[in-house]
Amino acid sequence: MGDTLNAEQRRYCMSRVRGKDTSTELRVRSVLHHLGFRFSLHRRDLPGCPDIVLPKYSAAIFVHGCFWHGHKNCFRAARPTSNAAFWNKKLDRNKIRDRKSVLALRSMGWKVLVVWECQVLAANLAARLEGFLTPEGRG
Ligand SMILES: [Zn+2]
Q: Hey, how many other C-beta atoms are within 10 angstroms of the C-beta on 72?
């Protein structure tokens, strides 16, 4: 498993892990914890290095910053107007990478949820996570 990532993916993974443990991600973890789900973090052997992985549910969760990952129609994702070419290239590359990671994970049998930074304080976060993990309810 560990060798399925190429060098670039591995670097990307490391950079993500370094910049992580943000309050956004901690919030999602804390909700999952309260719901009683067990999970592991930053699985480097999986495409895109998902922030939260629940092997029992074959589920991977990305907690994305709206700006860096280009949340569609989100005011936090407004692109800088100065040096636009640089930013467009950089941010477009992130989006393409995110999309590839999701597709790769799905093809491996994982289900994938993206939680955006601007959504983590929403009242429905717990319901959304639970609905994603156990659509048929836990029993
Ligand atoms: Zn957003």
A: 8
